[in-house]
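FW: tagging you since you asked about this chain on Friday. Here's the raw sequence from the shared folder, copied in full. Didn't touch anything.
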Amino acid sequence: MSFTLATLKSTVQDYCETSETTFVADLNTFIKEAEERILKNVELPVFRKNVTGTAAASNTYLSTPTDFLAPYSLAVISSSAYIYLLFKHVSFIRDYTPNPATTGTPKYYALFDDTTFILGPTPDSTYTFELHYKYRPDSLTAGSDSGTTWLSTNAPDALLYGTLVEAATFLKIPEEVAQYEQRFTAAVAALKKLGEGYGARDEARYDINRA
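HL: got it, structure written out here
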């Protein structure tokens, strides 16, 4: 089973047995809320991305990508070698280099605000960085009616029941909210096993499931 935007919307209307105008107009919102819950509760390789960028000499700040959610690693690329920075709090960076004019090869980084990293020490020349990070994928609702996403193809049950939770909440049907929430929780638990358990296991280890 998989969903396109159109088939997911029609399935939600079938489950809820309504095509009331306001309800239909809010279907995209229900879907986006479900996607957001999955994104915030499950670690999956599909939510990871790598990008490269540069920080100019004497500039202690590095912009985050527009779809950035959280960092996994940040490395300076120097002579084809990767030098990984240690993730710290802003106060640590300020204490380590209280004077931003102190320059060198960056060793530490921190989230300064929603769109910026701060580096310590301040770069002494222009460096290329590679950021490995969790990002927000495009919503299913951003495409055409026939469009699909990784979630709608590979986790249709989680997306369906998450959307139904929002739809039933909108319709003020608490018993259905509880029912769909239970199904959504089970689907998310299965996704967590995929992303955080089975997908990360070393098949040579002896603690894997064996026949």
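FW: The two ends are 27 Å apart (CA to CA).
HL: agreed, and Confidence is low (pLDDT under 50) at residues 202-211.
FW: great, closing this out.
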